[in-house]
Amino acid sequence: MPRPMSNQPTPDLEKSTPSSDAAAVPKGPGFVPTFLYYFSGTALVTTFLAVKILGVGLDTGIPNQFGLLFGLAGGLVGTYFNQGKVLEIPFTSRKTFLRDLQQVLDEKGYSQNAEASDDEVRVYQRPTLRQLFSGKIYVYLADKRAFISSRAAHLRWLEKRLQ
C-alpha cells in the first residue's frame, strides 16, 4: 500500500530560515547553565564567608540562608550579563555593515581572529588577558541579515551601536 504524500519538504530542499541561519554560530550556554554556574559559586562563597564572619556553624542554618539569598541574586545578575544569546541584525549593504561592525568592535578592543574564522563564521576576540573575562563574538552573514553570537551584555551594547 503506497504511503500518502506529505506536504513537508525534504531536508535537502528546505529553505534557509532564521533558526537555521542562527544555528551557524555557536550560541554558548543559555539561561539554566549560566544561572547554575553563578548561583552555585556565589552560594558557596557566601556560605563559607557567613560561617567565618558570623562565627556560627552550618548546623544552625543561618549561613545556608545567606548562601541561598546571595546565590539567587548572583545567579540572576550573572545570567543577565553572561548568558549566551544570538542577535539578528538586518542590513542593506554587506560591505557597509562589516565596516560599521569593525569600527564598533575596535572601540571595545576586539579584532578578527583569522585563524579561528572560516568562510562562514567570523570570530572576533580581545587580546589574551582581556579575553579571559569577555569571551568571543561570532558573526555569521546571511542574505541581508547578520547573526551575532556572544554574551548578552555584548549583544545589548552591539545592538544599540549598530541600529
How would you characterize this protein structure?
- The model is unreliable at 1-18 (pLDDT under 50).
- The protein is built from 6 helices and 5 strands.
- Strand 4 (137-142) and strand 5 (145-151) form a beta hairpin.
- The N and C termini lie far apart (56 Å).
- The chain has helices spanning 18-22, 31-54, 62-82, 94-107, 128-131, 152-162, and strands spanning 84-90, 111-112, 121-125, 137-142, 145-151.
- The chain has a 5-stranded antiparallel β-sheet.
- The chain is an alpha+beta fold.
- Helix 2 packs antiparallel against helix 3 (62-82).
- What is the overall number of helices? 6
Topology pattern, helix = H, strand = E: HHHEHEEHEEH
Specify the biggest β-sheet.
5 strands, antiparallel
Assign an overall shape.
elongated
Spatially, the strands of the biggest sheet line up as: 1-5-4-3-2
CA distance, first residue to last residue: 56 Å
- How many individual β-strands? 5
Helices and strands: which structural class? alpha+beta
What percentage of residues falls in helices of 4 or more residues? 40-55%
Provide mean pLDDT, rounded: 85
Rg over alpha carbons:
22 Å
Work out the strand percent: 15-25%
Unreliable runs: 1-18
